[in-house]
Design brief:
- The chain is an alpha+beta fold.
- It has a domain at 55-106 and 125-227: Umud Fragment, subunit A.
- Helices cover 18% and strands 23% of the residues.
- It has helices at 2-11, 28-48, 107-117; strands at 50-54, 69-73, 88-92, 127-135, 139-142, 150-151, 154-155, 172-175, 180-184, 206-207, 211-220, 226-227.
- The strands form two sheets. Strands 1, 2, 3, 4, 9, 10, 11 and 12 form an eight-stranded antiparallel β-sheet that branches.
- The N and C termini lie far apart (101 Å).
- The model has no long low-confidence stretch (mean pLDDT 82).
């Protein structure tokens, strides 16, 4: 009888009390911890390997459009390789495009850098994306009789220029110092680049050690996902 009574009690017990049933308890603490781990992983990835970079202006059209998020390959020049003509580079413009010391040490700039590394905010005011037109030792001249840039006496083929733009409305001739780069935007009429800093300290040249990485891919929007536009930079 005792056995039958026990079975009866078990049969009428609440399903929640059954043995072997998994119990799932929602925990905000676990969610927060997972969020922190993911954020730290993305920050480490952005700092050392692949960093999202939000395009803030029209200066690189049509290659990059306002709002594009490009993926910057930070390993591109880590192992002895150097920027080449036609490369799309993201660089720290302090000392070349903006005065040395701009944004340094401020809490706001540090927070902005962290948000930028996550790819969800505007880039630092000291970071820029441009195309390499001349490398150390190059003689860069604008423009020849056809309105095109010449590098070391040879006409530069630039299929990436914004439709209707000329190579440059500002004539110039420079010899790029060793260890530096001459960079320009693809939308020349909308780009402030090396041309605009010729009379300033540094002469508009970007030191190679200031290059953060190479913008190899468009990551967002998905409709534009893929490798960056034509490298160009050849001679014709």
């Amino acid at each position: 009888m005792d056995t039958e009574a026990e079975l009866t009690r078990r049969g009428h017990s609440s399903p929640d009390q059954g043995e072997g049933r998994p119990r799932f308890a929602f925990s905000w603490r676990r969610v927060a911890l997972l969020g922190v781990i993911c954020a730290v992983f993305v920050l480490l990835l952005g700092n050392f390997v692949l960093q999202p970079f939000l395009i803030p202006s029209r200066s690189m059209e049509p290659t990059f459009r306002v709002g594009d998020r490009v993926l910057v390959n930070k390993l591109a020049y880590r192992f002895g390789d150097r920027p080449r003509r036609g490369d799309l580079v993201v660089f720290d413009g302090r000392g070349s495009f903006v005065p040395e010391g701009t944004g340094s040490g401020s809490v706001g700039e540090s927070l902005r850098g962290a948000v930028s590394a996550l790819g969800i905010g505007d880039p630092s005011e000291t970071d820029f994306v441009k195309r390499v037109v001349g490398v150390g030792g190059d003689d860069v001249v604008c423009c020849d009789a056809g309105g095109r840039i010449r590098v070391n006496g040879t006409t530069l083929d630039e299929p990436y220029l914004f439709p209707g733009d000329t190579a440059s409305k500002v004539p110039f001739r420079i010899v790029v110092p060793l260890g530096t780069l001459w960079v320009m935007g693809d939308h020349r009429s909308q780009s402030r680049d090396s041309r605009d800093h010729l009379g300033e300290p540094g002469g508009g040249m970007v030191p190679v050690e200031k290059v953060i990485g190479r913008a190899d891919w468009i990551g967002w929007p998905l409709s534009r996902w893929g490798a960056a536009g034509p490298a160009g930079g050849g001679h014709g």
